[in-house]
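Hey, quick one: can you model this chain's 3D structure?
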Amino acid sequence: MPKLLRRNLPLDIGWRNCYAEKNEDTEVAPMKKSKGKSTRPDARAWWGKNRLSCIILAAAVVVFIIVRALAATHEQPQSRGEDYAEYETAVITDVLSDNTEQDPVSDNGYRGEQLLLAEIRTGQYKGETMQVSNYVGPLYGQALKEGQRAVVLISTYSDGNHTATVYEYDRAVGLAVIVGLFLLATVAVGGKVGAKSLVALAITLVCLFFIMIPLLMKGAPTLLTVFLVCAYITVVTMVILGGVTSKTICAALGTIAGTALALLFGLLAQGLLHVDGLRLAEVEPLLQLRQTGTPLGLRGLLVAGVVISALGAVMDVAMSISSALTEVHTVAPDRSGKELFRSGMNIGRDMVGTMTNTLILAFLGSGLVFIIYLCSLGLDPRQLISSPYMATEVISGIASSIGVILAVPLTALITSLLLGGKKTAPLTK
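Sure thing. Here's the predicted structure for all 429 residues.
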């Protein structure tokens, strides 16, 4: 027994000494931090950790400013003619006459005309009370009551006279409440990550409305512009949500690759079915816009819509696969790239079924009214299948699903190649 003790004692002491040294090294930073006399070490540590993310976001801001300046050259201020019209907010102060009645054909919707008194709350006629006509039908307008807010169209003529009609019920307050509840729920449930997601969402909307649409209106190539904007949104979103890590890099690359394949499949399907953006139901006003000289490319709008609608789902799948494989590699760093790829595919197969179902149902839900209309016609199956409207819905739903499906093996492959050769677990946030 003493011999055994003498043999094991040095090993025990050595192990404890090594543990003490390691523990001492890891405890140095917290001990300094606990003094609380200076925040410089924390600031340096934060900058060292997030330096690359800050550089990428700064570069993204510069790119946004440059592209926005180029896109804004198309936007010319509209000069007022002798006659002009303005949309202003008003409050109904009195109902002078009301001959509206329920229409049984439109499921008891109202039809008729109202003559109202309205106090203008915005614009050059602010504070003035006007007689306002309100035309109500099953597909437009809404019967108004005293105290309700409305948006009125005020037409001003060259002789100084003006008339006003109700455009629609003022929904600004209701929309603000709904958006506020959404923001509150996101932050309350998601916390810091939820707040970051809202920032990313705001950037996405800004890019779509202030970059993509102005560029398309200026005549930029439709598909190339949409794809580059989606790639830009992907990179910025990933950096904001997770910084620059192996996980976010793999997710961003997987998202871009999946979106590109959705675009290619959309083009293939468009060629096979002989439809394009000209067959979209909403394209007629855009044809009139082209007649005014706006060089908007219409034929790529169908596939462009596919790419935009697929982006969110593809990003979700790519991040889930990348995050799961990063965690697997952290727990088992000795796993080979082949094993990581197999794990990613196993995880992705469970996601594909529900995500594909989600996309198809989303497209069916958005086109529910038109689907009911088609079914009510009692069309011959051949007529229904050959309908260009049916073809566009099929392309929209399936092409987006293809992007989601192929994002699984692509992200799994990228992640396995990036992490498979590492023998130590990568740093995560």
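One thing worth noting: Confidence is low (pLDDT under 50) at residues 1-39, 424-429.
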